[in-house]
Amino acid sequence: MTPGASTKITYPRGEVAGEAAVVLTDALEGGSGVVVDSTPFHPLDHTWPDQPADTGLLIDGERVLPVVGCLTGAVEHGGGPLYVGEAIPVRRGSAGWHWLAVHVVEEAPPAEGARVTLRVDAERRAALSAGHTGCHLAALALNEALSGRWRKEIGTDALGRPDFDQAAIASSRIRPFGSVDVYRLGKSLRKKGFTTDGLAGELPELAARVTARLAAWTAADAKVWIDVPGPELTARRTWHCALPEGEASIPCGGTHLASTGPLAVASVALALDAAGGELTMTTTVAG
Ligand SMILES: [Zn+2]
User: Parallel, antiparallel, or unpaired for β 38-39 and 8-9?
Assistant: First the structure.
């Protein structure tokens, strides 16, 4: 069978369960991929793999199949093979392709056309959502802490601070109750006007300032929501947070808490690699 549409996704509004029709199954390394018309499962994004895939259960009549992963897939309009993850030959969201959440099961997949129930591991999802919300807040707080290091005008974040996060981010990894962000402090960043003079010695103070800002933002119990322009997997969604300083927004395909309040304890560590070319921010929250 060929999917007639992109997968509709319900996780941006916090859903962790749903019913769906199986539209396609295919063999994958380590098992089978199952595509349904609508899913609460967050798949790993193959181009910016920041938030890990949801895991959980797929219930097919009497059979309960563990979903051990969820990947991004694509099939060309009109038919053709299912490409998964890094094998997808076109840019994310390209027109002319159906964009699919591909649930990975190790046992025999359900029949195409079957009605199934999907259940995300809600505890793990909540921990990842806490980690992702903390990650965005830490990025905004880091922008503020480093704002005095810019010698030239640069694009600003939604709170009006020079957007170090956007200018320097190399990778971002969300984990349960935390995140690790790696920033590149290379020649191109210095050309944009960022100075690293004395940065190593300042790290403990900067980390303390970022941590204090996070504590203030969690104490404010600011509302968090996701702007969802369409139900498809590749719709351009945006994270918003009503912080005391103003409304922050960051493009984001992940899942989040409904407010900053549950992040009761948060701490941020900053470290430079030996060559001084990479800054790593490790954020830990309690959700
Ligand atoms: Zn995000």
Answer: parallel
Residue 174 Cα, ligand 1 centroid: separation in angstroms? 9
Q: Phi/psi of residue 235, each to 5°?
A: -55, 145
- How many Å lie between the centroid of ligand 1 and the Cα of residue 136? 6
Mean pLDDT along residues 77-83: 94
CA of 140 relative to ligand 1 center, distance in Å: 12
Q: How remote is the CA of residue 28 from the centroid of ligand 1, in Å?
A: 28
Alpha-carbon 267 to chain mean position: 20
The answer to whether the CB of 175 falls within 8 A of the CB of 217 is no
Distance of CA 226 to CAs 13, 89, 148, 159, 172, Å? Answer: 7, 29, 30, 17, 19
57, β-bridge pairs: 66, 119
pTM: 0.96
